[in-house]
Design brief:
The protein is of the alpha/beta class.
């Protein structure tokens, strides 16, 4: 069948020119290149549709043209080389993670770790909807089914008529794949233009170590390890192989789509067959059998998701349990062989399964611009490596290298360690939240600021609140009075310079600017917040305000903008004493610190314990209380600023909180206005910008 694959002689030049043109278009047009994304998506869908039909037909045709014993021997021995590739990638990710500094976890996760684990693994290996998943590049179920069908078909006595049909089908699909090869420069232009145009340079600072390490790993395997491995095992020289790998890799790198290298690999194999004068029919049958399996199981670039997750574990101060550390490589293998899609998708799955914070989802899509093409390069190289080794194995051209293999693997490991060490020395790692309460100004997060004044309740008591609509009062007095929690970063707090800052303060400043009024900030007394709001001492309360059943009887609330669940904050050295929740609930002498809304919740959850209002981290370390009940975000901040404490995370068992703004109970017009204003600013992208600034980007 390979005779149909005649890739144009100068296709590499066209691909290179398309990549350069895409870089220029993306650089000068920026986000406007998004208009090209639907064309790229359409092209990829066309390619995937061809592949979905080509895999079963070519696999069954290849098996049917090989003796059953020979096909079984090839499949068995190729499994060894697949395991070798997987092991090499897992080892490289673990070596890279050695250079991540140890960080104290902000919370200790005691939720069940295996709940749904095996179901999820099976879901990826055996999709619930095979037709939908097959169209989305879940290739192994399709390949395995075709393999079994081909083995069964070998034993059929009347297989010749169907073989002719499959031969015609392969021929037609290969012609279509050649169309794809001819159009690959167009896809390369679209892909590169969109990636360069939409690349977010801001993540280079916090994630530089991660990006450089991932790219270096891809280049190391694609340009050194895999070609050298093939040259050691086969008669092919490294000089010849590096040109072949570069030829294949350029197509995968430029398009970001490893599936497109089908005809390019066939072209390389055709040249090798002609050079060594291998029998055509035997060679083509082996090719048609092994190529679909290689594309299903040798796309080792997807296994970079393991390093992504290990990095984010360090980045967000997540401590993986021993069970999780064992399962992470297994998960990365399953996701690698189950999809030739984006590494981004695999990381999203792992991030959710291993309870990484939701901020992880902010970074994952942005990494695509920097890593996707290199991942496709490594995937293409991994597929070519496996195909070459198995094809030479079939022709009995594999060499016995013995000690050379050991020397090569040791040398490669030492070289890779040296590279990672160099990256570690020259690129400092960043970790999230470390500077979350560092100096930061509202002026950097907002285009315009209204006049702002921080005062207290006594000043407002001089002028009793006016009757009528709060909005009318705000506009007539040209002042909006906002109650705020002065010690709840990153919602509202004073920085180390004594300046007011925070996500909620930025929102209120924007509201005041839109209304063209002055912003007056008043510290909240949570013991009297309901009375103070309803009496009109301030117009709205902010600062991580939590809505619960007891409060909604006396206050009104806006739509919530963030969710958080509760944890127990304890002394880090005594953390092991508080991981059994059932025992804590029955403990009579337990001293629980709580504030505001958490007081009633603590009494409900631990009726036999004694509750101490307004306790903080220092009360834990001074042994005035045993634990504090608070939100996970607060626990994270306390444990980073004061490493002597840590959160115990039981999931949502201790309650889930909805964070919003509190309003007076009776003024429905004011609530309707604030909710509509919040909706407009969420749709405009203002929420995302402020969230990234106060919770994610500027915390790095």
């Amino acid at each position: 069948m390979q005779n149909y694959f005649r890739v144009p002689k100068h296709i590499s030049i066209y691909l290179g020119a398309a990549i350069l043109l895409g870089i220029l278009v993306g650089f000068f047009n920026g986000n406007d290149t998004e208009v090209l994304r639907p064309l790229e998506t359409t092209f990829n869908m066309f390619l995937q549709t061809i592949i979905v039909f080509y895999i079963p037909i070519s696999l069954m045709y290849g098996i049917s043209n090989l003796p059953a014993k020979e096909a079984g021997r090839l499949l068995f021995k190729s499994a060894f080389f697949i395991l070798l590739l997987w092991a090499a990638m897992i080892l490289s990710c673990l070596l890279a993670s050695l250079f991540l500094p140890e960080t104290l976890p902000t919370t200790i996760d005691v939720k069940p770790q295996t709940r749904g684990l095996y179901e999820k693994l099976l879901e990826y290996l055996v999709p619930e909807n095979p037709f939908y998943d097959a169209m989305h590049n879940v290739l192994p179920p399709l390949a395995i089914f075709s393999l079994l069908l081909g083995v069964a078909y070998v034993r059929s006595k009347d297989k010749e008529p169907l073989l002719d049909v499959m031969q015609i089908g392969c021929h037609l699909l290969e012609i279509m794949l050649m169309w794809v090869a001819y159009m690959s420069p167009i896809l390369a232009f679209l892909h590169v233009a969109v990636l360069v145009g939409t690349a977010d340079i801001s993540i280079l600072k916090p994630l530089a170590f991660h990006i450089v390490t991932a790219i270096t790993t891809c280049l190391f395997f694609s340009l050194f390890f895999l070609p050298m491995l093939v040259s050691l095992l086969t008669p092919l020289s490294y000089r010849v192989l590096i040109r072949r790998f570069a030829f294949i890799g350029l197509a995968g790198f430029g398009t970001g789509q490893p599936l497109i290298v089908f005809p390019f690999i066939a072209q390389v194999l055709r040249e090798i067959r002609l050079k060594y004068d291998f029998p055509y029919r035997d060679w083509q049958a082996t090719f048609l059998m092994i190529t679909p399996l290689s594309f299903s199981f040798a796309q080792i670039g997807n296994m970079l998701s393991l390093f992504f997750v290990l990095f984010f574990g360090y980045f967000f101060h997540i401590a993986f349990t021993p069970l999780q550390e064992i399962l992470l490589p297994l998960y990365s293998i399953v996701l690698s062989i189950s999809s030739s899609g984006l590494t981004q998708e695999s990381v999203e799955v792992l991030a959710k399964q291993f309870n990484l914070p939701e901020e992880t989802q902010y970074f994952i899509p942005k990494l695509r611009s920097f890593v996707q093409s290199f991942r496709a390069l490594l995937n293409s190289s991994g597929v070519l490596c496996l195909i070459l080794i198995v094809m030479m194995l079939h022709e009995k051209k594999l060499k016995k290298i013995g000690k050379k293999a050991t020397t090569f693997l040791i040398f490669s490991g030492v070289l890779l360690l040296s590279v990672y060490f160099s990256i570690h020395r020259f690129i400092p790692q960043k970790e999230s939240y470390r500077e979350l309460i560092a100096p930061r100004s509202l002026r950097d997060s907002l285009a315009n600021l209204p006049p702002i004044e921080v005062t207290d309740l006594s000043k407002n008591l001089i002028n009793p609140p006016e009757e009528g609509s709060i909005l009318a009062k705000v506009l007539s007095c040209r002042k909006i009075i906002v109650g705020f929690d002065a010690h709840n970063a990153p919602y509202s707090y004073f920085d180390e310079n004594g300046c007011i800052a925070g996500f909620d303060i930025a929102y209120m400043a924007q509201l005041a600017y839109d209304l063209d009024v002055k912003l007056e900030l008043v510290p909240i007394n949570f013991d009297t917040i309901e009375k103070d709001l309803n009496d009109g001492l301030y117009d709205i309360a902010v600062g991580g305000i939590m809505m619960d059943f007891s409060r909604i009887q006396h206050l009104s609330f806006t739509n919530f903008y963030k969710e958080d669940h509760n944890v127990l904050i304890v002394a880090r050295e005594d953390a092991s004493k508080y991981t059994n929740l059932s025992r804590l609930e029955l403990q009579k002498n337990l001293r629980i610190g709580a504030a505001g809304i958490f007081v009633k919740l603590a009494k409900d959850l631990f009726p036999l314990s004694q509750v101490y209002p307004d306790a903080r981290w220092n009360d834990i370390l001074d042994n005035r209380v045993d634990v504090c009940l608070n939100g996970k975000i607060t626990a994270t901040l306390w444990s980073l600023e004061y490493p002597g404490v840590v959160g115990i995370d039981f999931g949502e068992v201790l309650g889930k909180e909805y964070i919003c703004y509190a309003l007076p109970l009776k003024d429905r017009a004011w609530k309707r206005f604030i909710n509509q204003w919040l909706s407009i600013y969420k749709l405009s992208g203002f929420y995302e910008k402020q969230y990234n600034y106060w919770f994610v980007e500027e915390s790095l």
